[in-house]
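Hi R.,

Quick one: here's the Probable membrane transporter protein sequence you asked about.
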Amino acid sequence: MQIYLPIAEVSVNAFLLLGLGGLVGILSGMFGVGGGFLMTPLLFFIGIPPAVAVATEANQIVASSFSGVLAHLKRKTVDLRMGTVLLIGGLIGAALGVQLFNMLKSAGQVDLLVKLCYVVFLGIIGGLMFFESLKAIRRSKVPGALPTRKKHNWIHNLPVKMKFRTSGLYISVFPPLIVGVFVGILAAIMGVGGGFILVPAMIYLLGMPTKVVIGTSLFQIIFVTAFTTLLHATTNYTVDMALAVLLLVGGVVGAQIGTRIGAKLKAEQLRILLAMMVLAVCGKLALDLLLQPSELYSLGAAGGH
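And here's the predicted structure, written out as tokens:
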């Protein structure tokens, strides 16, 4: 069943979009990521222009994350205070990111930048998470080995401290604020919730327990991506509603299934699965960039005439 997407100006199969939405929804429920880091490249692969994919995907993340958060709130695994601090940073970052996106769009460089951002970030984060998870799995197999957890690092010595009861932390508000700003900028440029950066940052930088991280990450993602979508829709006019609705329906159903699967798996298993997926998408995108130089240059040359 082919449908025509008016803003993207392409025809795609409606069931394919529903399936993609469902798959990404499952991931969002399992890992606490908005799923945009997988969905946006998948949309590139089926022919959706990057500028439209970024703005529309932000829309779908809001729904699947909201669906996931409801499931986590029931379990009391959301640190609302930490989520709020991350959110303040995220909104500032999203506003800056949309400005940058608009500047690049007017310069005609946005498609290449979005793809390059993906390759760089997915490569770094996927690699780090993969090696860390392998270490954690090895440690868990050694009988009587206690998990080595650095309780105090330089982050714990920064000023303006706050108590985050759900996470059992007493740290400065600056690290979560800075993490929030960074994730907000990425949300605007890459059409992602930023969960794939937020989740590792919350675990390794802020020292939050894994079970609280997923719900808290989704809580922050909802508001930052909703704000990003609004800004893209009003400044760029690149949000394709037909595309968004199909992805949304799949995403909401998928998120509920994913939350149930995630509850049954160990934290290390979840992290290594996520890392492998991140690296796979990174590899595919990098290949696409390397295999299409002639096309990219001819487009540039054509634009120059």
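Residues 2-144+161-293 form one domain.

Cheers,
M.
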